Amino acid sequence: MATTLERGHEKTTRLPPTAVSRRNRILAIAAILSLIVGLGSVAGGVFGVVYTWNQAVAENIVTPPDAPIPETPVRGPLTMKAQADIIVEHTLENTDGLRYAEMPRFVPQVDDAGNPVLDENGEPVMVPNQARNIWITATTLTTALHLGIMAYALSALALFSGLVMIMIGLALWTLRSPQDRVSIA
Predict the structure, then answer these.
(1) What's the burial of 168, exposed, middle or buried (CB within 10 Å: 0-12/13-18/19+)?
(2) How far is CA 180 from its chain centroid?
(3) How is the chain split into domains, by residue range?
(4) pLDDT tens digits, 152-166
(5) CA proximity to 52, closest of 130, 170, 154
C-alpha cells in the first residue's frame, strides 16, 4: 500500500518497498533486453554495410563515361543506381526504345541483304527475337544492383533502429528508483 507524506504544501506518494523492487526489476529487465536488441541490430547493420561493400568491390564494376556518375567504381547505393540507370538506357537504345514485354517473341529471319527468309510456302521464317533477349541480361544486372541498394537501405534501418533501442534501454535503466536499485543476479 502506498504511503503519502506531506511536507508543507507538497504531497509525495511513496510505493511500498516490494512494489518499488518489482518495478525496478521490470525496468532493469526491459532495459537490458532493449540494450541487447539494440546492440545486435547495430552489429547487423554494420555487417550488412560491410558485406554489401565487399561484394560490390569484388565485382570490380566501373560506371561508363555516359553514366550519371561517370567512370566511378560501383560501391555504394548512388553508384549502384547510376550503373542500373545506364544499363536500362543502353538497353533501350539497343531495342529501339522497346522494353521486353513490348517486343514480339519471334521476328522474321533476314538474310545478309536484310531481306526476309521465306519457307517453301512463301511465309517468313520466324526466329527468336535476340533484341528481346537483351532485356533478360539487363533485368538480371539491374535487379542485382537494386538489391545492393536495398541492402544498404536495410542496413541503415537496422543501424538507426539499433541506436533507438539503445537509447530506450538507457532511458529505462535510468528510470529505476534510486531507493531500491536492483542487481540482476
Answers:
(1) middle
(2) 44
(3) 15-180
(4) 999 999 999 999 999
(5) 154
